[in-house]
Write a structure and sequence with these properties.
The complex is a heterotrimer of chains A (90), B (232) and C (218). Chain A is an all-alpha fold and 90 residues long. Helices cover 72% and strands 0% of the residues of chain A. Chain A contains 2 helices and no strands. Chain B has a two-stranded antiparallel ribbon with strand order 1-2. In chain B, helix 6 runs parallel beside helix 9. Chain C has a single domain, classed as Four Helix Bundle (Hemerythrin (Met), subunit A), CATH 1.20.120. The longest helix of chain C has 40 residues. The chains are: A mainly alpha (90), B mainly alpha (232), C mainly alpha (218). Chains in contact: A-C, B-C. At the A-C interface, helix 1 and helix 2 of A face helix 2, helix 3, helix 4, helix 5 and helix 6 of C.
């Protein structure tokens, strides 16, 4: 019974996102950006640069966040284990 | 009145529901406050969405379901706050009863409460916004039932689990609303379809079937996870 | 896990270092031009986010049904990563969409269900931070329900949207861009694995600290 439940759960979690990710049928009414009037056309380069900057900032920011939290936790670990060993020695 | 043997599933559900309804009936605190809140909600939205005396299109449908969602959250919070005050939920968990039956009992109690609120709020919305909500009474009744079951099923589980958490008042909506978005979408679109001049019945039926399917899936999930999640 | 970590880190770093060149050399897409190059980071972000969501959901199931504490640490790490990668996707998408579609946001099924999924994981993190002790199981239930919710949200938004006129198009992938895309996807999935390992390590260290505090009190 448990195995059945766990199998069905595994299937559940793989199938559901897979089903959800089916691409939608292409809709009509697409106007290529190049045929929009002049004032509607945006320069692409700033958008691309900002997008890449966002990704790099997020990745590096998160890495930094993990690193600082980890060093704080490891410092605390060393501190507590030191207190424990001095306490035991008494 | 001590039962001589462990009650059956249905008996347990009835015992739990009856206890909740009796307590509520004596003070009527939750039903009155929730009802007033729902009415106030509708009023506030009226000021937001009525321009020159005429409601924006589809406003009635949206307002009805938002009022149900907000007052439902309030009712869930208040119902379980009562359980928390005397730690009665733990007592219920200790009793030799079927845990899923406990969940269903609480769910039915919440449903009765919300039904009482909807019975007043739905005609109120129909009146204030000039929306012919009762043109298809059976469908609107089924819709309200299915939507409320979906919302309350997820809400009862989350509220029960939050009983011992900190910041539980604000956490309940934070957890509940993203999960019940399909209920709101389906409820509003189906109501809007029923409010069309002739009533767009095929579309309404489609949304209703999605809602029923949602209810089945999430009540099942809740029944599966209630016991392992509530026990430590 | 430890033996795989350093090679994985090196491969991922390599992929990320090579990626800008691969992307630059990829052909321009005919209708969207330069701005389409956001796609090489945008879609892999969402792929990584879905991986994170699945890991969170599956570990959540282990937390609820098997009561495993280590699964809870993995679930928490995965939820945080889901929020980070989702944020990447949510920020890069509108930047692309503003140029390609003319609007910052569109209530289409994929965008909306991705947003809702992201919100579920933000709610997960809020719950873990402010819910106090004992939120492990509730957050696992939330992750489970969030995952089960995805098809419903997708379907309902899809139908909800068809009532309104469509003003957008979704690009279909051209084969000549497949290789850079694959490289970037692998890079992101590798990044996800590396970050997950690092984050789980943080949780493990915290758990050891808690244990030692308990031992200290005895």
């Amino acid at each position: 019974m448990r195995r059945l439940l766990s199998l069905s759960f595994a299937f559940f979690f793989v199938a559901l996102p897979a089903l959800a990710l089916q691409p939608p049928s292409p809709p009509d009414g697409f106007v290529p950006a190049s045929s929009l009037p002049g004032q509607e056309q945006l320069p692409a380069a700033p958008l691309v640069i900002v997008a890449y900057a966002v990704v790099w900032l997020l990745v590096l920011g998160y890495l930094w966040s993990i690193w600082s939290r980890l060093s704080r936790a490891e410092r605390e670990l060393a501190d507590v284990s030191r207190r424990l060993t001095t306490g035991q020695r008494r | 009145m001590i039962p001589e043997r462990i009650p059956s599933f249905v008996q347990t559900v009835w015992l739990v529901t009856r206890k909740d309804l009796l307590i509520e009936f004596r003070s009527r605190e939750v039903v009155y406050t929730t009802l007033f809140f729902a009415v106030a909600c509708v009023l506030v939205f009226a000021f937001g969405f009525v321009r020159e005396g005429i409601a924006v299109d589809d406003a009635a449908a949206g307002i009805l379901w938002i009022a149900i969602a907000f007052s439902g959250t309030l009712a869930l919070g208040r119902t379980f706050e009562r359980e928390r005050q005397n730690d009665t939920l733990r007592a219920l968990m200790l009793a030799p009863m079927d845990r899923p039956a406990l969940y269903v009992g609480k769910l039915v109690g919440v449903l009765v409460l919300l039904a009482a609120v909807e019975v007043i709020v739905t005609p109120l919305v129909a009146l204030m916004f000039g929306a012919p909500l009762f043109a298809h009474p059976l469908l609107i009744g089924l819709l309200l039932a299915a939507g409320t079951v979906g919302f309350a099923a997820v809400g009862t589980l989350f509220a029960a689990m939050l009983v011992r958490a900190r910041s539980r008042d604000v956490l309940l909506p934070i957890l509940l609303y993203p999960i019940t978005i399909p209920v709101i979408i389906a409820g509003v679109r189906c109501t809007a379809a029923l409010l069309q001049p002739q009533g767009d019945l095929p579309i309404a039926r489609m949304w209703l079937s999605m809602l029923v399917f949602f209810d089945i899936v999430f009540v099942t999930l809740a029944l599966w996870t209630f016991e392992p999640a509530m026990t430590e | 896990m430890k033996k795989v970590f350093v090679p994985l880190l090196i491969v991922t770093a390599g992929l990320f270092a090579y990626a800008p060149f691969a992307i630059q050399n990829a052909p321009y897409e005919s209708t969207m031009g330069l701005v389409q190059k956001i796609f090489y980071f945008h879609v892999p972000s969402w792929i990584a986010m879905f991986f994170a969501a699945m890991v969170c959901g599956i570990s959540g199931a282990f937390v609820i049904f098997a009561g495993r504490q280590d699964a809870d640490r993995v679930a928490q790490a995965a939820a945080e990563l889901a929020v980070v990668f989702g944020l990447m996707g949510l920020l890069t998408g509108p930047l692309w969409g503003r140029k390609a579609w003319g609007v910052w946001w569109q209530w289409d099924a994929r965008l909306t269900s991705a947003l809702v999924m992201w919100l579920v994981f933000v709610a997960y993190l809020l719950l873990r931070k402010y819910g106090g002790a004992g939120s492990e199981k509730l957050s696992a239930v939330l992750a489970l329900f969030g995952m089960a919710n995805v098809p419903f949200v997708y379907w309902s938004v899809n139908v909800w949207r068809t009532v309104h006129p469509k003003t957008s198009v979704v690009m279909t992938l051209q084969p000549s861009m497949g290789i850079p895309f694959l490289l970037c996807s692998l890079a992101f999935v590798g990044l996800f694995a590396v970050l997950l390992a690092a984050r789980v390590r943080l949780e493990n260290v915290r758990a050891s600290v808690d244990e030692l505090y308990l031992a200290l009190e005895e």
